[in-house]
Amino acid sequence: MAPPFPDKSGSPPASAVGAELHYRRALDQGQFLIQRCKACDTSVFYPRMVCPHCGSDRLDWYAPSGAATVYSTTVVRGRPQDGGDRNVALLDLAEGVRMMARVDGIAPADVTIGMAVQARVLMSEEGGKVVFVPAGASAVSAAGPSAHAGARADGGVAA
């Protein structure tokens, strides 16, 4: 899997500005944040400078509950030497936004539509990123990979 930042420095790319830069810096500190519009009280994700619902620029940051439901999922096949298969899922957060991420802690083919999941911030050399685990599953150790079948060994999870 390619690192999120091509230069592998762990820093957001120079093109990350404004809301995206704020979001990425928070992830790098282990915080998952989304926005809420003060004008129409609607949650917003992916980070933006203007509310896509009403056009207001009055967006505040907050930590979502992390509770989500799998809306759609697929298995991306990979060679074992490249980490093997992984899943890519669209997830509906309890706050009403949809995002793309992966579900860790179970085999990629075992992720199902309608499954309840919980967000975690995965810390790695490249910085923080949001992943999900099945609801009720214990968090993956921040010191290393999970003992769960199908879990990827590319870093730990900060709860």
Q: Give the C-alpha Rg.
A: 16 Å
Q: Are there runs of 5+ residues with pLDDT below 50, and where?
A: 1-9, 139-159
> Which structural class do the helices and strands define?
mainly beta
* Relative helix content: under 10%
N-to-C span: 23 Å
Write the H/E string, N to C.
Answer: HEEEEEEEEE
Major sheet: 6 strands, antiparallel
Strand portion: 25-35%
For the structure shown, list the relevant keywords.
6-stranded antiparallel β-sheet, 159 residues, 33% strand, mainly beta, 7% helix, 3-stranded antiparallel β-sheet
Structure report:
25% of the residues are buried. It contains 1 helix and 9 strands, in the order H-E-E-E-E-E-E-E-E-E. It is mainly beta. The strands form 2 sheets. Strands 4, 5, 6, 7, 8 and 9 form a 6-stranded antiparallel beta sheet that branches. Helix content is 7%, strand content 33%. The radius of gyration is 16 Å and the shape is globular. It has one helix at residues 18-28, and strands spanning 34-37, 43-44, 59-62, 67-76, 86-93, 98-101, 116-124, 127-134, 156-158. Strand 5 and strand 6 (98-101) form a beta hairpin.
Q: What is the fold's blueprint, element by element?
A:
Elements lengths: L17 H11 L5 E4 L5 E2 L14 E4 L4 E10 L9 E8 L4 E4 L14 E9 L2 E8 L21 E3 L1
Antiparallel strand pairs: 1-2, 1-3, 4-5, 4-7, 5-6, 7-8, 7-9
Task: Write a short abstract of this structure.
The chain is mainly β and 159 residues long.
